[in-house]
Amino acid sequence: MTKASKHSAESSPVETLAPVSSNRQVSGSGFLLTLVAAIPAPVPGQFVMLGLPENAAPFLRRPFSVFDFDAGQRRLKIFYYVSGSGTEALSRVRRGEELGLLGPLGRPFPESPRPLQVIVGGGRGCAPLVFLSRRRHKTTRVFFLAGARREDEIPPLDGIKASRVFVSTEDGSFGKKGSVLDLMKSVGASPDFEWSSAVLYGCGPVGMLGELHRFAVKKGVSCFVSLEARMGCGLGVCQGCAVATGQRKYSLVCTDGPVFDSSSVDWELYSGVREREDRESDILM
Amino acid sequence: MRQVRKRTSKSRSESGERRGPTKRPDLRVRLGPLELKNPVMLASGVAGYGDELRHVVNLNRIGAVVTKTLTLRPHEGNAPPRLVEVPSGLINSIGLANMGCRAFVSQRLGRLSNLRAKIVVSVGGFTVGEYARVVAALDDAGGFDAFEVNISCPNIGSGGVNFGSVPANAARVVKTVRSNTSRPLFVKLTPNVSDIGAVARACACEGADALTVGNTFRAMVVDLHSRRPVLGATTGGLSGPAIKAICLAKVWEVVSAVKTPVIACGGISSARDALEYIVVGATAFQVGSACFRDFRTPQLILDGISRFCERNNLRSLTDLTGTLEQAGT
């Protein structure tokens, strides 16, 4: 079982009710939710479980990665797309209502001594990466590459702290036309770009992450990815969010992840599972 | 064995005199030789190996914690997807993923000694012999209060529900386990049978101290795009509010069939749910899937039951147990 990281800042999760400060549409199907959250400060890559007000459907809470956290104001920001019944119901929650909140959960993105951080996000997968880019680190350079299918699916990028930010859309409606991996390859092809000094961090659709992993292997670069799965508890007790990380070995996305070293993941099995879960259309974030 | 399930008005007044006047209702319940300080238990599968929920549930307040089911050897569990949500519930096909009883003894059991909740260790097996060996290994280690024998897991190829669905097979497991331990022994039944009373009688005859009614209902969801089952194991077990009314009837069948105390388990998410089970005749109850929605649920249910007793001038919760009146009277 791979432990992606051990981070000294990880805290015990708290179960609480969190009043909604705002919940507004910021792009085509993208929403930015702000909660007053009396929880320990999450570390980039960690997530929270959010539950709708009592007796409202759906029954289970949903995992959401942290987009931003203001420790002084206890303001927790979540970026989500409406992509199923859970997020559809969430989008109707109004200021002043309370959501069930459990967090912070999971293992964060590990810090790396490598001088160049290459952060690659696809669609809503950019959310935990924007938070990651804001972490204080010793890395001298941060390259942030964000991709989406079209302009109205690009998450808010104004919070990114990076040396360079590159954006692509598959339909060419914003930034460079093509996939974010094509963008990464063209950025990485410049003569002053040294893959040997880089570390990769990724989050996004399973196809993108699998390709990112294969690219990392080819370049001999460490690559850490944040995975998604259907979750029951978020605390490792229900064992529902298993992901294959070796022959007949399962890790739990909630407590062994959600961040994994990409070389530990069985990408063929994970892709099959995610495609089935995605078709359920009630996608977890 | 003292029976607390059905009380007459005479025994009610006796219990009131014995415990003296007090504002706080007495929530103690007795499951065979084991007394719990209150009837709230965490069901197997939601509390991990016993103390994982210590940050979010006050494990010292509730009556008992049931561990996830332990088998003789470590078990990886079923291929994902393992969870799918349905209206008012979820279907799981975890498949008894667990670290094995030996690792539990060496790594986890010691951490449970400080908990004030009673610890019930759930055990499972793929053969009758495995049930005997896992119980013997754990019994030697000690440091817990009771066994819950899982003869009802719907998510494994052999063993599990196969034992729980035929009275003679259930009896064989319980008889074997009983001969390997003198600890309190609970048996978790499957509701996926046409006559749960017959299975309950078989288990009671072989020395079960209490019966947990019950495990999940076999269920499935189909992915219309591929026309394949959504779950990796094809079927799973349905839990959550969706099953409460069905499970209530199963508890009613069991309390009508045996005098052994019953632990209700099925869709409980509020004090009202729990109290319905108690009126029907359950002595204690387990909270499962509702914890995933809010881990404070067991404590909120406990508070709700206390308030109900106070409002209805019940000095003891057992005054309510099995007080179901006949329909139409």
Describe the model.
The complex is a heterodimer of chains A (285) and B (329). With 285 residues, chain A is an alpha/beta fold. Chain A folds into 2 domains: 9-105, Translation factors (Elongation Factor Tu (Ef-tu), domain 3), CATH 2.40.30.10; 116-280, Rossmann fold, CATH 3.40.50.80. In chain A, 18% of the residues lie in helices and 31% in strands. Chain A has helices spanning 85-91, 126-133, 180-188, 206-219, 267-279; strands spanning 14-25, 30-36, 47-51, 62-65, 68-70, 75-81, 98-105, 116-122, 141-148, 164-169, 176-177, 198-203, 222-226, 242-244, 250-252, 259-261. In chain A, the strands form 3 sheets. In chain A, strands 4-3-7-1-2-6-5 form a 7-stranded antiparallel β-sheet. The longest helix of chain A has 14 residues, at 206-219. Chain A is globular, with a radius of gyration of 18 Å. Mean pLDDT of chain A is 89; it is low at 1-8 and 281-285. Chain B has an 8-stranded parallel barrel, surrounded by 6 helices. In chain B, strands 5-6-14-11 form a 4-stranded antiparallel β-sheet, with no helix packed on it. The model of chain B is unreliable at 1-21 (pLDDT under 50). In chain B, helix 3 packs parallel to helix 5, helix 6 (196-205) crosses helix 7 and helix 8 crosses helix 10. The radius of gyration of chain B is 19 Å and the shape is globular. Helices cover 31% and strands 18% of the residues of chain B. By secondary structure, chain B is an alpha/beta fold. Chain B is built from 10 helices and 16 strands. The chains are: A alpha/beta (285), B alpha/beta (329). At the A-B interface, strand 14 and helix 5 of A face strand 5, strand 6 and helix 9 of B.
